[in-house]
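ok here's the first one, seq then struct tokens
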Amino acid sequence: MFEIYLDNSATTKPYREVNQAYLDMSEICYGNPSSLHSFGMRAEKEVKNARGALAEVLGAQDKEIFFTSGGTESNNLAILGFARANKRRGMHIITTAVEHPAVLEPMKQLEAEGFEVTYLGVDENGRIRIEDFDAALRADTILAAIMYVNNEVGAIMPIEKLKPLMKKKSPNAVLFVDAVQAFGKLPIKPEKLGVDMLSISGHKIHGPKGIGALYIKDKTLIRPILYGGHQQNNMRSGTENTPAIAGLGVAAQLAYQDIKKQPKIRAMRDMLKAGILTQIDNVVINSDDACLENILNISFLGVRSEILLHALESNDIYVSAGSACASNAPKPSATLTAMGKSAKEIDSALRFSFSEFNTVLEVQEVIKVLVKEVAEIRKYVR
């Protein structure tokens, strides 16, 4: 039996080219990019090349790209750094109730510092309502932090519709987008979308772990959250992780070349969905057809998600019960709760997330195993 990995929203298998770039930087070009000698300058050149690669796929300037340790740090830098630097302009922030903890936890910190945060709800499909966003905007709103793609159900937020509303009612506000789940799967040009700051993470796009980036539109005022080394124009201190940065640059280019493979991924997702609906009763689809192709969230009523997850694992099939980053949290899924799902639906939900490395044969095997395991588990819970 071969392993079937359907937890790509948690992390992805690195491309071979990424591993090679990482290895080359570790073994050959391992100088400190801040060093003034030629060995350090070679490393600095590779960092610039990776920055240029990210800037190219985003349609941004090189100076607008800053490397971080990952999506969590990027989100913290954008939210905390901007809010603290601009609080004289206003103390009101808008976000959603379905954001990743890397956004919600910084929001809690800002509330403790005196900021007021409005948490928008979502509709039954996991998307914010434009009228709710518009109603929440105020003259003292300085920041809106809205994810591009929800990590649990794959709902795509109407990002392109937000900035025009902000310009009318909150001209001093900037738009920050957590694009960790969207980058490399959707064509993203921050300037065209009206996005002022945007976060990405390497390990979600077949890149290395422990590396991410933050796009910051030129002239956006942000206060650093790390101090000490003056790297990256004083925005993010600390010696650059050159092997991971090089790998991220390669991954970003390859991921954007592979956006054309999304129809293949959609076909596999739809095949899994159809197989489950036709062969297993009492299921609820939590990801609608307009969600990102990579994600399918389904509730198998009467079967606890944790039990089914481990049953699949015993068959070498790997999926997730919600967000991997919050899998140890005692609270139920914030996303499914906000969507109005029942306790039974939330308790029985599994997330299947695909990548280009998955195959139709794998999907067929997953359907077969699900039919068997769900029926077996239900024998003991009815």
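and now the second one, same deal
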Amino acid sequence: MKKKSTKISENENIEKLSKVIEEKKKLPKEVKGKISSKIFENVLFVAIIIIYLGALNLGMTNIPTENYIFDLKVFSIMLLVGTIITFELAYKKDKSNLWVHGVEILVLAVFTTYLVNLYSMYYNTFGTLIFSTIGLYLIYYFVKILIERRKIIKQYKKSLVDIGEIVKKKS
């Protein structure tokens, strides 16, 4: 009789432990919210870039060449100023995500600066060049979102491990 009761209690303990493990595997609302905010931030950023590049593509067909080249120069200067402001804010607030966005804006500013020359050299394929750049940005941000999501989940799982506390207690 005692063997049956110990087997039942062992099975109950195993079930309880498996429930606890399942609960620990589920992400809490705070972590899901953090992931959602990162995804929203990156989707918003790439949407702005796509709208900007789409406007450049439309401008190529609708604006006279001299005005379009002048507009590209103005946009590149504005983006460079935006990059400097973003870097300053990232430095003052000590936020690495702002620094990354600053680098992304800098890349876009340099690309816009090169567009001035590329417009003259590759006028016939200029639209394809811009659409290719949009595709590259989409791929970049998709990979970036996946990496940031994995990083947040990894940090959460690392916070659950209490091995450090056990080692401190034993020593």
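notes on #2: The CA atoms of residues 79 and 147 lie 26 Å apart. The mean pLDDT is 85.
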